[in-house]
TrEMBL record:
InterPro entries: Amidase_CS (IPR020556), Amidase_dom (IPR023631), AS_sf (IPR036928), FAAH2 (IPR052739)
Domain of life: Bacteria
SUPFAM superfamilies the UniProt entry points to: Amidase signature (AS) enzymes (SSF75304)
Origin species: Streptomyces capillispiralis
PANTHER family according to UniProt: FATTY-ACID AMIDE HYDROLASE, FATTY-ACID AMIDE HYDROLASE 2
Annotated Gene Ontology cellular component terms: endomembrane system
Amidase domain: residues covered: 24-464
A Pfam family the protein falls into: Amidase
Protein name: Amidase
Amino acid sequence: MDWNLPTAGQQAAALRAGEVTSEELTDEAIARIERHDDAINAICVPDFDRARAAARGADRARARGEERPLLGIPVTVKESYDIAGLPTTWGMPPYRDFVPAEDAVQVSRLRAAGAVVLGKTNVPLGLQDVQTFNDIYGTTNNPWDHRRTSGGSSGGSAAALASGFGALSIGSDLAGSLRTPAHFCGIYAHKPTLGLAASRGMVVPPGPALPVEQDFAVVGPMARTARDLTLLLDVMAGPDPLTHGRAYHLTLPPARHERLRDFRVLVLDEHPLVPTGSAVRAGVHRVADALADGGARVERYSPLLPDLAEAAVLYTKFLFSGSVARFPIETYEQLQARAAGLSPDDESLDAARLRGMVLSHRDFIGLNNSRELHRHGWRQFFTEFDAVVCPITPTPAFPHDHTPDLMKRRIDIDGADHPYFDQLVWAGLATMPGLPATAVPASRSPEGLPVGVQLIGPMHEDRTPLRLAELLEPRIGGFRAPQEAGG
């Protein structure tokens, strides 16, 4: 049997039943990577010798009667996580030789749960792109169409999972970096509630691995099935033992419902600031139909929904405010001059990006007050609804575009050009207020490319969108390997 494409849950059951060993699973995963990754370029830092040793250790532990959540399961880790003895570069050439001395907290949790780490997956330069390529490790291709991107910034992890290189992976998300690659590659991912999973050791090199609380960014699980997301989230979730973990332990509430017919869901397929492409719209409709067929209450409008345009502008300003921290002072002053020349009436996303890059602390406080009002609006919304179904980006995976100036790139939405970063507004819908969001495969485009949607749930109720994803899976098909689909 080919053990590379079964889920982590299936692999764990086979290990418990003695049908396979961790050493066999690991050897098969390594062999598959060596056969196929030249064309994909997902695994940028292999760690095969230590993986084989860890697999042998897992088999010995099981023989002693040990049981751990991921005991013996081969996994991958996004390159941006520190792993002792391996380079952490974030794709930035000046740090190609930086090797941390200790594991990130999430890597430690994987190892404690018994996982076998195969290696690290590729990322874009500084994690700041919707694609995955850099001058150290090259370009990661979409397994469905090598001419297209796998997404970013967790594009290497998504491509690895779609290709059968390990059963699970861990990534991160600030601007859709878990959800967009999942959507482009046809897998599952979950952006947890802000602060739910500790991120120490996922830090720009060569910075020290400090337990810093992030303002928007989260770390989260990626998998080939919804149930595996929950399995991995349970390993990842919880406060940092150096800070909040000294005082409390995390207990996630159960999903609001166990049956599809008990869910109340708002479906969105239009945004006031950017159009939704026909392929993505079709994916949203397919999920909406599956929900309705399962008896869920499906609505298309609610006056409780926070204003989408205002949310997008707020998110854009926040997102780009952190992008200029290392800019030369001369460049920053030029941006300030350009922002000062904007019309006060210009509320476009282009204007929001420019204003965000020169945001003052005074303006930041004002924005943060607006964010808290949005969070309160979402609390009210989720008294009437359990989840929102909406796009992740307006299009399926697009062709590689390595134009150096990201501001000059364009995204094609049904034949019309739009600013490249406009595609981030749907990701920001969950990121700005810190809500959990689960990316699920929904359909295929006319070209055969995967199309995913996101299920956004209430804050700190991550099990609600995860359970909804699990209930939808048999109705919308879930993961299919590119080879099986003729990709």
